[in-house]
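User: What would this chain look like folded?
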Amino acid sequence: MKRININLRIIIPIILLAVISIITIYSAGTYTSKDLGNLALKQFVWYIIGFILVGILYKLKNEYLYRNSWVLYIIGNILLLLLLFFGTPINNSRCWFVIPGVGSFQPSEFMKIFLMITLATMIHNFRSDYKNPTTKDEFIFILKTLGIVLIPSILTFLQPDTGCVLIYLIIYFCMMFVSGIKLRWFTIAIGSLALVVGTILGIYFLNGDLFIKLFGTSIFYRLDRIFAWSEGTGLQLENALAAIGSAGLFGHGFNKTPIYFPESSTDFIFAVFASNFGYIGVLVLLGIIIYLDINIINLARKKILDTDKFILAGILGMLIFQQIQNIGMTVGLLPITGITLPFISYGGSSLLSYMVLVGILINISNEKKRTYKYK
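Assistant: Here's the prediction, encoded as structure tokens.
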């Protein structure tokens, strides 16, 4: 009988996060619209489906995903394009397909994974073809990979979903950083980005009318929302801070969220957990998150396929960014961007996409070092 190897250092924290997610979403139900149904039960079902996905990926192996990276990438972009025409508007965004009797489906969540897989195979092939790449070789490669990232970024930005676009770029930066290209490219990129962002923000702050003429009202109001955090105003943030600040050492207790704030089961799920379980509960949650991140880092340090190393860089970049951004915006340290807390916030599409990543991580921990070429 074939032995099944499962990395418990990955699975155990995921199970603990699943338990925390379900009980916190149940507690958030106090202020959640009853029209949405029992979100805690739905999250439990999504987790069951997610673990089934992990089992399927365990059988398929990561090589199957790498060999079909371009198929996945094309499918992802087609879905993002179709959203602009057939997506159901929710909160002024066309980010979801609504499936009657099932729920909503958000393609951008899976596009993150498709992007990682595609970039990982591209970097692998580049390093296989060019043992000592010239500056020209690297420049052409950067243009190709940047084009691959820009296509879904533009489609996602038009939905609009600025937070997800930011995650695409984080994934790209992290994967390119470990790709082996010269560091001068990152200096050029950071300098160019600073110049562009500085110019745009300068116009935004100095001449709002000109900004609207150049970039439109949609982008103006998106920036307006981001910079509103610095004033510490807004019902969502003020009530979340009040809930967290009043929790004390042990919190108000399970299912005793003291005050209402919007998006309590998704974007601001951390505030619900902190208000229920207090400072001690937050330390436990952060400990589990850090433990998971450290084990992924340790996995990347082992002798594994270079393709796996590249995709681990993308996974780590995405998870750590979302963890810091979500918790940071909940406590008023970072702008509110609508980015959820991985494995904790409610969401079928997002949770299933994270569980796909868990399946990839399990496979990486089991694979022996080999040499492949994906075309």
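The longest helix spans residues 269-300. If you want, I can go into more detail on any region.
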